[in-house]
Design a protein that fits this description.
By secondary structure, the chain is α/β, with parallel strands linked by helices. 40% of the residues lie in helices and 21% in strands. Strands 15-16-17-14-13-18-19 form a seven-stranded mixed sheet, sandwiched between helices. Strands 10-9-8-11-12-20 form a six-stranded mixed sheet, with helices on both faces. Strands 1-5-4 form a three-stranded mixed sheet, covered by helices on one side. The structure holds adenosine-5'-diphosphate. Adenosine-5'-diphosphate (ADP) is lined by residues 143-146, 170, 172-173, 203-204, 207-208, 211, 223-224, 227, 230-231.
Length: 476
């Protein structure tokens, strides 16, 4: 079986203690990962600090060069990385291949824009010159979830490294495999030892040790709200900035003038992608009452035609990440049965070949009251809730009626309505007549309300990994 080491100061490290990584398509173990604790986190932070002394003396062009080289190596190893990601997460192979391509793009994109990172000169009284510098924080900590291990690794590391920081990453315990592969490729790309360290392990052990470490200068976290709150508290205790991305309950808002033929396939893929285990999943449909019946029938037909299977067979829908996650989905679906109308799904597929994996059928609820759990809670599974509305005012109220505010989409041919809705909906990203943006590397992404704060992706993501220094020089 494959063994996954930690990568600290350029060395592959094992601790003698491991945890088992399971293939969710079969339920069988496929790797043993090194279980890091406080000692390894201390070593990783120290290694990053020491590497920072070296990296801060290098030019922006040097940083761009190593990041570009890393992107090239990811592309060279694309098939191998996609196979590993497919096995680790259970996601359909073509999705894993897309994830690899987006991962490479993150490093290329930030390699490109980092050389456009500059300060300003500021008007001052005669005899003074004032300017700002955009400087890295130093050592940045990154705690990632299990749903898109490669993309999340790149999304958080690429801007941090581009800005000149040195990093310690704690990947999710369910999916530690590919983050370590990226750290290996980074060494091959010419990263000095310690510029990127990866410490696999459990959240309350390695994760908590990293978040509360006095030697870190910034934290980036994507995951659940309770853990995000704990991480923000740890950050507050050390007075370090934190970026939190805590998921959503994102609506597709479908008006009577929408092109349903175009909308329905995208509405289905917005909840089916990665088996619904996507922060920005379109998990609610709000639909005008005049097209409600037609839309539900079309979604149902597509849901029932989806091919379910192991990731490696490249189905439409792979398994959930774990039995624990499947139990959580099932329990919310049970609650949904009491609160709304179950149209299709709501159980495990009746197929012996899928027996060992953590599969769940795509599930559609209709007539979901705004207050129902399936309309309010992030389920992180292939469960879509539909709620009809009468007019624009009600649509906006429903869209904004959860604690979250990550993504929303508006489907209409009326350009005025599209602008009004984009204005009135509380979300970090609003799409019109489309959903998602194939990774959206260039587009600032992050939450309103309880979906979190801070932005990743785009130029704003790069700025977030810098601190401003203002320099004033008397020239008399
Ligand atoms: P999920 O419930 O979807 O697994 P979590 O928020 O628990 O999401 O996990 C996201 C990441 O946070 C994972 O890398 C996990 O190991 C880490 N984590 C979990 N608990 C803690 C904690 N107490 N402190 C720091 N990190 C944690």
């Amino acid at each position: 079986m494959r063994t996954i080491p930690a990568l600290i100061a350029g060395e592959e490290v094992t601790t003698g203690t491991t945890f088992t990584v399971v293939d969710p398509s079969t339920g069988t173990p496929f790797a043993e990962a090194t279980r890091c604790g406080t000692a390894q986190v201390d070593d990783a932070v120290e290694a990053a600090r020491s590497a920072f002394g070296f990296v801060r003396g290098r030019s922006a062009e040097w940083r761009a060069g190593v990041l570009r080289q890393l992107a090239a190596l990811i592309r060279r190893d694309a098939d191998r990385l996609a196979d590993l990601e497919c096995q680790d997460v259970g996601k359909p192979l073509r999705q894993a291949r897309t994830d690899v391509a987006v991962t490479a793009r993150y490093f290329d994109y930030y390699a490109g824009i980092l050389q456009a990172l500059h300060g300003d000169t500021l008007p001052q009284a005669d005899g003074m010159v004032a300017f700002t510098r955009r400087e890295p924080f130093g050592v940045t900590a990154h705690i990632t979830p299990w749903n898109y291990p490669l993309q999340m690794t790149a999304r958080t590391l690429a801007p941090a490294l581009a800005a000149g920081n040195c990093c310690v990453l704690k990947p999710a315990e369910d999916t530690p495999v590919t983050a370590v592969e990226i750290a290996r490729l980074a060494l091959e790309a010419g990263f000095p030892p310690g510029m990127l360290n990866v410490v696999p392990g459990f959240g309350p052990e390695a994760g908590a040790a990293l978040a509360g470490h006095p030697g870190i200068d910034h934290i980036s976290f994507t995951g659940s709200r309770p853990v995000g709150t704990a991480i923000a508290q740890a950050a507050a205790a050390n007075v370090v900035p934190v970026v939190l991305e805590l998921g959503g309950k994102s609506p597709n808002i479908v008006f009577e003038d929408a092109d349903l033929g175009h909308a329905v396939p995208l509405i289905v893929s917005a909840i089916i992608q990665n088996c619904g285990q996507t922060c920005s999943a379109g998990s609610r449909v709000l639909v005008h009452e005049s097209v409600h019946g037609k839309l539900v029938a079309a979604v149902r037909e597509r849901f029932e035609a989806l091919r379910i299977g192991p990731g490696a067979q490249d189905p439409d829908l792979g398994p959930l990440i774990s039995d624990r996650q499947r139990a959580r989905v099932a329990s919310l679906v049970e609650q949904g049965r009491r609160e709304a109308v179950l149209v299709t799904g709501g159980d495990v597929p009746d197929d012996e070949r899928l027996h060992g994996g953590f599969f769940y059928r795509p599930t559609l609820f209709d007539h979901v009251p705004a207050t129902a759990a399936v309309a309010q809670e992030e389920i992180f599974g292939p469960v879509l809730s539909v709620t009809p509305f009468r007019d624009d005012t009600e649509a906006v109220a429903l869209a904004n009626g959860t604690e979250y505010g990550l993504v929303a989409a508006v489907w209409t041919r009326d350009i005025g309505r599209a602008h009004r809705l984009a204005d009135e909906v509380c979300a970090g990203q609003v799409f019109v007549n489309t959903y998602g943006a194939a990774g959206g590397v260039e587009l600032p992404f992050g939450g309103w309300k309880r979906s979190g704060y801070g932005r990743e992706k785009g130029f704003e993501g790069l700025l977030g990994y810098t601190q401003t220094k203002t320099v004033v020089i008397g020239v008399r």
